Amino acid sequence: MNTIRQFHDVINDSDGYARRLKNDSGKKILGYFCSYTPEEIIHAAGIHPLRLFGTRSAIAHADAHLQAYSCSLVRGVLEEALAGRLEFLDGAVFPHTCDSIQRLSDIWRLNLKFSFHSDVVLPVKLDTSSARQYMGDVLRKFKRELEMDLGLSITDAQLSKSIKTFNTIKRALGKIYRLRSANPGLIAGADVYALVKSAMIMDRADAAEKLTAVADQLEKTKAAGADSGKRIVLSGGLCDHADIYSIIEKSGGAVVWDDLCTGSRYFEGLVSEGGDPIEALADRFTERVVCPAKHSSITARGDGIVGIAKEHRASGVIFLLLKFCDPHSFDYPYMKEMLDREGVPSMLMEIEQDLPSEGQLSTRFEAFIEMLR
Amino acid sequence: MSEEHLKKDPEKEKMKVKSIKKMKEIMTAYYIDAKTAAQNGKKVAWITSGGPVEPLIVMDAIPVYPENHGAMIGASKMGVDLCEKAEDMGYCRDICSYARSDIAASTVNGGPIGGLPAPDFLVCCNNICGTVLKWYEVQARYYKVPLFIFDTPFCHTEFSSEARKYVRSQIDEYIKFLEVVCGKKFDMDKMKEVGRLSLQGQRLWQDVLDTTMNKPAPMSAFDAFFHLALIVTLRGTQTAVDYYTMLLEEMKERAAQKIGAVPNERYRLLWDNLPVWFKTKWLSDKFASYDACLVADTYTSAWCGSLEYLDENDFLGSMVEGYTRIYLNIGVDEMLKIIKKMIKKYDVDGIVMHSNRSCKPYSLGQYDIMKSLQRDTGLPSLMIEADMVDERAWSESQIETRIDAFMEIIKQKKG
Ligand code: SF4
Ligand code: SF4
Predict the structure, then answer these.
(1) Do B211 and B205 meet the contact criterion of CB atoms below 8 Å apart?
(2) Over the stretch B304-346, which tens digit does the pLDDT of each residue have?
(3) Do A106 and B368 count as a contact with CB atoms less than 8 A apart?
(4) How many whole angstroms separate alpha carbon B130 and alpha carbon B134?
């Protein structure tokens, strides 16, 4: 599809995109790292929230601050910043997730001189009323911080408008995902990846409009050829590799859904558009599909992946885990076990910013996909 | 061959810390108690090392510390075997080796004491890391027991009023949880007593650590690693208070007689991060061979680092701050401030940093701490790459070379 090209252009040069956006609109840009960032609040302040991913460049600067046993996301983002390639940022927002991001925040604050820095220290457990209360309190605190530091005020009306924009994006992505699940031949995995990633990079009003258009167009399209791939679900932290999708496809699989931070965990669960907007955001963070760094019940993630596998009739699940990511590593054994019990085969693939060679990947994916029913 | 059968060397006898025997007795009794808890109608609670244990003592539940168990596993060199078992279970080699060895030990009753007694419930306080949350979720599934999470928001530079309110409300939730799982009412009067004993124990522990301000230092960080067990496991009890009273006396006595942990103490060093449990003796001897004594460390002082926030007259209320603002729950710059204070206080000549492969909250940021120290104080520092339990992360020749080079620098600086 011709229009999908533009999303690939965005993700292939996200820094360039951000620079242009800043030049053209004069907007401030805040970088962020994880799907627990209250993007709506940032956006409502007239600031552009930009999700930061690692780097494809060699690590030259970050090694002086982070041990080799840090995940490639944390090292990669710090590398980008220290190398001066994120000079267009006005600051960064660090939601409290894992121990590594937490320390990245410290190291960032001490070594980089962006004007804005904020730690959004969310609750770690999400299943009590005091945690829910605290969630709201933290979001209000973050809003105050933005207002004070940047000398502006964020009205409820602006917040509600932002919430609508983000909901539109999330609805469109959800629709695209569901269309693909119903008909995996409809759109290539790498294209869906480009759409999701763009949603975290592009101007949000623009993204809302364009993603909705793509979703509508896909809905009207008849199946692009019969699909014969085995139905695959991806699970893990973030996947920043378009190649993975095409290698899976070449190996006889088709990704039909995922449980990724750069995937369904990002767009599932809309924010209520009525009532107090901050409370609505707090509700969504509390109720959304949980990340391993947060707690909602001891089996929440296992139940989640089993639910996804069933709903989307997965033939198999591929766990894509970033090396040195503690929270995800801890969840893998029990999630696998729960899938085993349901008769859903799974495989584990440890990845870093640099992928193993395509040959190596295909061999492993092919072996796995071949044994799927 | 026991030492008693050897002819006693009076010089060596003088060097020995006598309290060690008492400590071993207490710990043995404690573990027997914990292992026979069910027979005696007592509940066993697993709790994280930095967790609020005092309310458990009030409820007469026996607190058990998987991390302490991890340390024992490491010290008895059973870590690799258990870590590999965990890896066979699907846990990746990069996660905390305390967690790995504990998770595996549960399934095979492994480790030096044949496994920990099964918990009746779990208390997880995330003031030390996010790892414990995941680890306790694993154990809650394995043992099918209730899990209470005491969530202490990270304080990069501030302890926000929002967080304070949140933690405060969790104290009430904690007590309610305990009343349910223990099936009895929480005794507020007893809480006062336990709180008082906890504070007394912590003060004594700080006093013990402070005896190393003496030159020579009557004990070293390696001794502190050992004597730490009680302030972790029996904080809030008279036993801990009595033990540290005795230990303090002994240390004061040694200081008065100028008996040093390292016979000819010439250089004084500070240790950062967890011990390398399986190599404490080697490391201690290695530094001693240079007449260097590790007189202080950032690890053992964590169990008395919140004294300034705790209030004897309102222990429960002051737990909010006391348990949130602890060493591992603060920003790198805040940690640096504490290290700088310790450098002054203990008058150290250099700092040894253990870059601990499986503990990210402790280790990430160490490079920045090192650089700042070098810049602001000119203090030489050494980075040792290792792990607290997993011996596979230990490369002796490399570490030895580094220590040799580091000690040369210290020598040149100090003469
Ligand atoms: S990949 Fe894992 S370790 Fe890295 S930042 Fe994300 S959650 Fe943390
Ligand atoms: S990660 Fe570090 S702080 Fe956490 S349990 Fe392991 S050793 Fe302790």
Answers:
(1) no
(2) 888 899 999 999 999 999 999 999 999 999 999 999 999 999 9
(3) yes
(4) 7
The pLDDT of residue B6 is 47
Strands of A230-236's sheet in order across: A253-259, A230-236, A316-322, A346-351
Exposure letters A82-112 (e unless 16+ CB within 10 A, then b): bbeebebbbbbbbbbbbbbbbbbbbbbbbeb
Tens digit of each residue's pLDDT (9 = 90 or more) over A204-213:
999 999 999 9
pLDDT greater than 70 at residue A355: yes
How far apart are the C-alpha atoms of A261 and B339, rounded to whole Å? 37
Q: Which ligand is nearest to the CA of A331?
A: 1
Q: Show Cβ contacts of residue A301 under 8 Å, excluding neighbours closer than 6 positions.
A: A259, A290, A292, A331, A335
**Measuring CA to CA, which residue among A197, A207, A211, A203 is closest to residue A27?**
A203
Secondary structure string (H, E, C) spanning B32-86: HHHHCCHHHCCCEEEECCCCCCHHHHHCCCEEECHHHHHHHHHHCCCHHHHHHHH
The whole-model pTM stands at 0.95
At CA B242, angle to CA B241 and CA B244, rounded to 5?
A: 65
Amino acid at site B267: Y
Residues 124-183 of A with CB under 8 A from B: 124-125, 128, 130-131, 133-134, 137-138, 141
Can you read off the two tokens belonging to residue A260? 């990724």
Ligand nearest to the CA of B95: 2
Q: Is A69 in Cβ contact with B91 (below 8 Å)?
A: no
Q: Which pLDDT value is given to residue B12?
A: 66
Cα A133 from chain centroid (whole Å): 25
Q: What is the predicted pLDDT for the residue at B1?
A: 38
CA distances, A277 to each of A2, A199, A246 (Å): 37, 21, 40
Cα(A165)–Cα(A210) distance, integer angstroms: 12
Q: Are B49 and B67 in contact (CB under 8 A)?
A: yes
Answer whether A327 contacts ligand 1 (Cβ < 6 A): yes
> Token match 């893998």: residue?
A332
- The string of pLDDT tens digits covering residues B338-379 is 999 999 999 999 999 999 999 999 999 999 999 999 999 999
